[in-house]
Amino acid sequence: MQFKSQIDLKLTQESGQTSQTPWQVKDNSYCEVVEIANMPILIKTHQNDINNLNLEYELPIANQNTSIDEVAIEKEIARIFNLNFDLDKFYSYLSEDSKLEPATDFCKGLRLFLAKDPFECIVSSITSANNSIARWTKSIAKIKEKWGVATEFPSGTFYSFPLPTTLMDVYEDNFEEYEAIGRIMELECCTKNLKSCGVGYRVPYIKRASELFTLEIDLLEIPKMTYSEAYKEVLKLPGVGPKVADCILLYGYGFEEAFPSDIWIKRIASHLYFNDRDISVAKVREFGMERFGNYAGYVQLYLFHYARKSGLMNKIKE
DNA sequence: GCGCAGGTATTGA
DNA sequence: TCAATACCTGCG
Fold first, then answer.
1. How many CB atoms lie within 10 A of CB A91?
2. Fewer Cβ within 10 Å of end Cβ, chain A: N or C?
3. Which positions of A are catalytic?
């Protein structure tokens, strides 16, 4: 299967978008389990040039004889890598703004990398708050190892992200785990609890969010809402403030009018557009949404990577 | 060993 | 509505 779209797969995978961790690299391909028509399918993507994306897939060993709708796979992959977004049109938009114009050179082929699973996106986003990319990436990997759903494929065993029902009931920390099954182990041997994944004080946020998605909130309703309805809805979740809400909406659900604003976007925006004046994060968010409209999300993505790669970030650290 | 980075929740104007 | 502060962890 091949997609004739401009995309830099490596850049898109590794740009630290918060909806999910990068896919596993195996044999020169990025591999991940994606659920399509209620079946876990192992997707392997690779590319040789920036205008082609190649894809192979495997069915679970237990379902080798099941027939699968390839069109559904194609659609889902195009959604995840946002392949229908017109990059060239976006680049000509960037070129009209002298502040944004240089970003193109540093980010050619970078696309939104949307969540394969909304719940994973939400936990990833909560974990990413007040955290470094390296740290939250490790935490998510540990959560998958400990409670993920294993599926056997011809290429091996792969784990997908745990379900909300699983995560809502896990032990919070060593002490809780020890209390529950302490008789057969030492306190320092406790490893199957959320705190041991390095998520720190976000433990109750993650557990409570899992509970909400099990009992009260329907993840599939969110994409049907307008941006501002969806924004209010995800803000109800513990550990979700303005920045994380926008990340969930943009990287998780593809609301491209979101402009996730953190300390870096604030610094970049105030440097480029406000003469280095100190602007509140809330104002930067408003500014971005107002000025860039439906391109706000892409502009945010591009600004961040442009600033990082060009050395602008080091320069404006105040 | 210790300071620092980084959003959210909470508290108190 | 806004400012100040605590929260946890890993990195330099």
1. 17
2. C
3. 243
Q: Which positions on strand B lie below 7 Å from a protein C-beta? A: 5-9
Residue A46 makes CB contacts below 8 A (sequence gap 6+) with A9, A28, A29, A30, A54
- C3 C1' to A200 CA distance, Å: 25
Structure confidence at residue A179 (pLDDT): 73
Residue A135 beta carbon within 7 A of nucleic strand C: yes
**Through-space separation of residue A158 CA and nucleotide B3 C1' in angstroms:** 40
Gap between the Cα atoms of A236 and A299, Å rounded: 26
pLDDT at A36: 95
pLDDT at A187: 57
Nucleotide nearest to A264 (CA to C1'): B6
Full-prediction pTM beyond 0.85?
yes
Residue A112 contacts residue A301 (beta carbons within 8 Å): yes
Between CA A318 and CA A316 the distance in angstroms is 5
CB within 7 A of nucleic chain B = A 129-132, 205, 237-245, 262-264
- Number of Cβ within 10 Å of residue A139's Cβ equals 24
DSSP at A301: H
DSSP strand pairing (A149-153 vs A156-160): antiparallel
CA distance A257 to A112: 13
Q: Determine the nucleotide nearest to A130 by Cα–C1' distance.
A: B6
In the block, residue with structure tokens 């559904």: A72
Give the separation between CA A46 and CA A281, rounded to whole angstroms. Answer: 38
When pLDDT is cut at 50, 70 and 90, the band that residue A16 belongs to is: confident
Cα A54 to Cα A3: distance, rounded to the nearest angstrom = 6
Q: Give the nucleotide with minimal C1' distance to the Cα of A199.
A: C8
CA A106 to each of CA A76, A103, A124, A189, A285: distance values in angstroms, whole numbers, following the listed order: 27, 5, 26, 46, 23
